[in-house]
Description:
Helix content: 25-40%
Distance between the termini: 18 Å
Low-confidence stretches: none
Shape: elongated
Strand content: 15-25%
Mean pLDDT: 95
Structural class: alpha+beta
Largest sheet: 4 strands, antiparallel
Number of domains: 2
CATH superfamily of the largest domain: Lrp/AsnC effector binding domain/regulation of amino acid metabolism (RAM) domain
Order of helices and strands: HHHEHEEHE
CATH architecture of the largest domain: 2-Layer Sandwich
Number of strands: 4
Amino acid sequence: MITLDATDRKLLLELQKDAKQSIKQLAEKVNLSITPVHERIKKLESAGVIQNYAAVIDPKGLGKKLLVYCQVTLVRHQESLFEEFESYVLGLDEVLEASYIAGTYDFLLKLLLDDMEDYQNFAVHKISKLEIISNIKSAFVIRSIKESSVINCL
């Protein structure tokens, strides 16, 4: 783990807002010349602080209109069952995020689907076929209030 100074944190915030900014633009925003900014970014990439650069896509532009959160409970708390479920979920394109949760259920899945028919197909033919699942509860997003992947670095 590397130690981040205020300039590193400012660079990270700026890159999260717009990763297509030129090194020159970033240098102006953090009051450094181009070379040190470039070196800092390379250092952050090498250390794994910056994991990748990606485009943010509007799901509706791809016909994906249904956002669903699924709470999944397994039949038993057994390491092999957790591993089986996690391995299975990694191969499902509909699953944007999967988290192991402490509380009344075991996993929380964030799904992105075309519509209710697509959800039904997912529920019946993909997730429900796993016999290690005892319960699935789904919540359908009516309207997203805030969507952001920007982490406040300052």
